[in-house]
Amino acid sequence: MAIPARIARQHKSRAPPRTLARFLLLLVLLLLLVVVVVVVVAMVISILSFSSSSSSSSYDRYKEYCKHDNHRYVYWGERIDCPGKHCDSCAGLGHQESSLRCALEEALFLRRVFVMPSRMCINPIHNKKGILRRRSNNGSSEDRWEANFCAMDSLYDIDLISRTVPVILDNSKAWYQILLKSTRLGKRGIAHVQGISRAELKEKCMYSDVLLINRTASPLAWFTECKDRANRSSVMLPYSFLPRMASRRLRDAAEKIEALLRDYDAVHVRRGDKMATRKDEFGVVRTLHPHLDRDTRPESIQRRIAKWIAPGRTIFIASNERTPGFFSPLSARYRLAYSSNFSEILDPVIENNYQLFIVERLVMSGAKTFVKTFREDENDLYLTDDPKKNNKNWQIPVYTADGEGT
């Protein structure tokens, strides 16, 4: 039977045209191609990022290494030199760095991973803002930053340290996993030690075979454990190690300041706490560094550095002296620069005096000529002949050039 022409035309109009079918097919293929490209690109980026991170950071390599069972750890406590104490009683950055370097040396000697405190205590005495401070209308040179501690990785580059000594922080997931594992291992899990030399820890299997060596029982400052520090040949990490390990943010700030200073010299003037005095039983004022006040005054500094630094040179001065304009007399002979001249660089970065000193230390190390306050090494240039370490001999301060006390 024949189909009426009108019905045939209606049936024909409902059939999808070939062009539409082709368009839909091409659209599906295009979407599939996009998905494939996205997946391939993601895989390539993942591979490249893994390769880059594993080759550039030994810390990342260490974390991969930690998946195995042949690593051991050494733990000195959650606070440097502050076991069971408040931060107010902690030593300054210099002492804490000596202790931290000692602990790192032991980890290196024992071939163990060092469990580093995630925070460093800041003694309020060493946290005054000094010449770099945000002063209000009623502010004073005694203003302090509020924090009494700071994050360790805000001071040091943990990845950079780990290239020499593998390090994990004591607030990391890895540390809690180690503690759990040490409890499961029983006697082989942890050894609590006190007064044991690092040689014994390495040679005796009762210590060398345990997962974790715990030194927190010692009431002494960490650096006292480095018994052979006077023998320089036995020091595995030099004094310059930690200064070179500054965090990336602090290194960047120092590099910007150095770029602005260009060709410059530097003088570190330690006054403040080093000039502390006390009266003896007869009421006579005495101090541990009798010539320091005299030798670190502008007129004495100028006479001392004249043979090392030519007139007209730019001198970057870092000091804990808080008297405004104290070093101004030196400007008659030299161009002077301080941290306060670079507040635009430092204000967004600096949160405490330890960070400030680390930046200043980096800047001073980049100077053409660097003059220290005290002599620390044989080739040092220094302002005073007083020894830096003097804990017992309290003497009458000397202010005259001929050495007579006044």
UniProtKB/TrEMBL annotation:
UniProt KW Transmembrane helix keyword: yes
Annotated transmembrane regions: 20-48
Organism superkingdom: Eukaryota
Protein's UniProt name: Uncharacterized protein LOC109723878 isoform X3
Keywords: Membrane, Transmembrane, Transmembrane helix
Cellular component, GO, one term: Golgi apparatus
